[in-house]
Structures are given as structure tokens and as C-alpha cells.
Design goal:
Layout: E1 8-12, H1 20-31, E2 35-41, E3 60-63, E4 72-76, H2 80-91, E5 98-105, H3 117-127, E6 132-137, H4 146-159, E7 169-174, E8 184-187, E9 192-196, E10 199-203, E11 209-213, E12 216-221, H5 236-241, E13 244-250, H6 257-264
Parallel strand pairs: 1-2, 1-5, 2-4, 5-6, 6-7, 8-13
Antiparallel strand pairs: 3-4, 7-13, 9-12, 10-11
Helix pairs in contact: 1-4, 2-3
Length: about 270
């Protein structure tokens, strides 16, 4: 049985310190007995990827009013990755056993993870050798985060008792349905999502043009299984549509081994 009181968990996000998702996650885990520290951006920083603040100072302050009294919370002017760096080096007295990010308001499926501040916050923890998980509620219109928080608690309990060959980085998406309607949890592989990129031209009050990115998803595509994974490991895109919680293991090593091997044999490299 996990001794929750002996485990330190750091939580961040990209929706900001006042987001309902992070508050629900932090309070649920704190009430269950985990020692929780929260460090989040002071405003929404969605789709910032793994950006860092290097040309201006980072300002931070402790926040006491919106979380369970057992939660230590900080607001940070930086990006999600900044928040985790700041937390690990300036806030946390003890090294966290887990780094969590979320619960994001909206899915992080397929190629979304390349842009996601939520995933990048978790990745920063993994870069430091700490098991890390990004949690997302796969809906922009659903504000019922408690089901996702309950899923997170169940998964955290299992993760802290599991031995891994290396600290994992997991992207977890929870379908926007009642807890009783969730079919279960599936380990999945990264799928594909395609968007129509549209820039709307508008005018400010002074008559000057500006542009607003207003892309929309047009379809979810099946990603060919080119990782030699068993055929029963489906994509996160497919599994979330079937009402499963998706658990997609990610990595920050982006080396394409197939292309590397292909290029290595090209005679023009040494011409």
C-alpha cells in the first residue's frame, strides 16, 4: 500500500494558476494524502511548447486563497517549462517523486503534443529524471474535471508502485464522459490530427491590420505503426473516441533512426 504522505508531487499546467483543472487535480491529490506543490503560469500560456524566458526576469509569488490549505501554491510569470524549472530549483525543498501537468482544458492527442505547454511542463520533469505525466480532459466545452482528477489519482497510485526501466513521460487523455461510461485505460501510441490553418485578418481601433490564428481540426488520421509496436496498441486518437483513458508514453529524443540509417549510406555525404 502506498504511503501517500511520504510522497512529494509537483504540479504545473499551461492554463494558468486560476484554472479549474489544476485546482481540481491538486485538491483531489492533497485530500488523498499526497504532499502537493503547485507552480503554474500567472496567466494562460497554452500552445507555448517548450519555450523558456531568457530575455526578462521571472516574477513569482505564493498563492494562498484558491487551493486546499494543504497545498503549497505559487504563481509564476514564465512559461510552463519555466514553472517546472523554477519549482525544482527554487521552491521544492525535497525532490518531487512525480511531476504532473494539467488537468488541461482540451485534448493533447497526436501531433498536439508538439505544441502543448501541458506536455512540455511534464517533459521538463522527465528531463530532470523524474517520472512525469501530462493530464488532459479531451474537451474544450466540458468543465467537469473531477472525473479526470479521479482517474489521475488512480493512475498516480499505480505509478508510484511501478518500477520502470527509465523515468517515464506519459501523456494521459481522459474522455469527457461520466466516470461510469469510461471503458478503461489503454496504453496507446501517438496518432495524427490534421488542422486547417486559417489566419483571420482584422483591424484594431486605429485601423491597422492584425491577424488571428483560427485553425480548426478537420479530421483525425490513423498513424502508421512504424515503431514495431504490437498491433493491439492503437492510437490515442482512436482510443479516446472509444471512451478509453489513453496513456501514451512519449520521449524527448527526436532522432529519426530510419532517416539516420538511410543518410549514412549516401555516397554524396563525402563528395
Amino acid at each position: 500500500m502506498t504511503d501517500r504522505q511520504s510522497l512529494n508531487i509537483l504540479i504545473s499546467n499551461d492554463d494558468g494558476i486560476f484554472a479549474l483543472g489544476v485546482r481540481t487535480l491538486a485538491n483531489t491529490l492533497a485530500k488523498a494524502g499526497y504532499k502537493i506543490t503547485v507552480v503554474c503560469p500567472d496567466r494562460e500560456r497554452s500552445a507555448t511548447g517548450h519555450g523558456l524566458t531568457i530575455h526578462q526576469p521571472i516574477r513569482a509569488r505564493e498563492v494562498n486563497s484558491i487551493f486546499d490549505k494543504r497545498v503549497t501554491a505559487w504563481s509564476c510569470s514564465g512559461t510552463p517549462a519555466d514553472c517546472v524549472k523554477f519549482a525544482l530549483n527554487a521552491v521544492c525543498r525535497d525532490r518531487p517523486n512525480l511531476v504532473l501537468s494539467g488537468i488541461n482544458h482540451g485534448p493533447n492527442l497526436g501531433t498536439d503534443v508538439l505544441y502543448s505547454g501541458t506536455v512540455s511542463a511534464a517533459m521538463e520533469g522527465a528531463l530532470e529524471g523524474i517520472p512525469s505525466v501530462a493530464f488532459s480532459l479531451a474537451s474544450f466545452s466540458d468543465f467537469e474535471f473531477q472525473t479526470a482528477a479521479n482517474v489521475a489519482l488512480k493512475l498516480v497510485d499505480r505509478l508510484v508502485e511501478t518500477e520502470f526501466p527509465q523515468p517515464p513521460l506519459l501523456s494521459v487523455n481522459v474522455p469527457p464522459v461520466a466516470e461510469t461510461a469510461i471503458k478503461g485505460m489503454l496504453v496507446t501510441r501517438q496518432g495524427l490530427r490534421r488542422y486547417i490553418e486559417k489566419f483571420e485578418q482584422r483591424q484594431d481601433p486605429r485601423g491597422k491590420n492584425y491577424y488571428w490564428l483560427a485553425g480548426e481540426i478537420i479530421e483525425d488520421l490513423e498513424q502508421p505503426n512504424d515503431n514495431n509496436l504490437p498491433s493491439y496498441i492503437v492510437t490515442d486518437v482512436q482510443a479516446i473516441g472509444d471512451r478509453y483513458v489513453t496513456i501514451t508514453p512519449l520521449q524527448y529524443n527526436l532522432t529519426n533512426t530510419a532517416i539516420a540509417k538511410h543518410l549514412y549510406g549516401q555516397d554524396w555525404l563525402n563528395r
